[in-house]
Amino acid sequence: MKSSELIRKLTKAGCYLTRQGKGSHEIWYSPITQKEFVIPNHGSQEIGKGLEKKIAGI
After folding, report:
1. What is the pLDDT along the chain (58 residues), one digit of tens a residue?
2. Contact between 45 and 3 (Cβ < 8 Å)
3. Out of 14, 24, 28, 48, which residue is the most buried by the measure of CB atoms under 10 Å away?
């Protein structure tokens, strides 16, 4: 899954961008878990499977 696809899914789930992190990383907030988490936004590069699984619970 690419960053843009993940961001679309997160937005649809009610998550939102809170601030820009270092470099190409973004800090997002999940109202479901009430936690912030980091998403790497590397354009067209694929997101790692481990990160996808970790975020899947959001």
Report:
1. 888 888 899 999 999 999 999 999 999 999 988 999 999 988 788 988 898 888 776 5
2. yes
3. 28
**How many alpha carbons fall within 13 Å on the CB side of residue 49?**
0
CA-based end-to-end distance of the chain: 16
Return d(Cα 13, Cα 16) in angstroms, integer: 9
For residues 24 and 40, what is the distance between their CA atoms, to the nearest angstrom? 6
> What is the C-alpha separation between 19 and 33, in angstroms, rounded?
18
Q: Which residues pair with 16 in a beta bridge?
A: 29
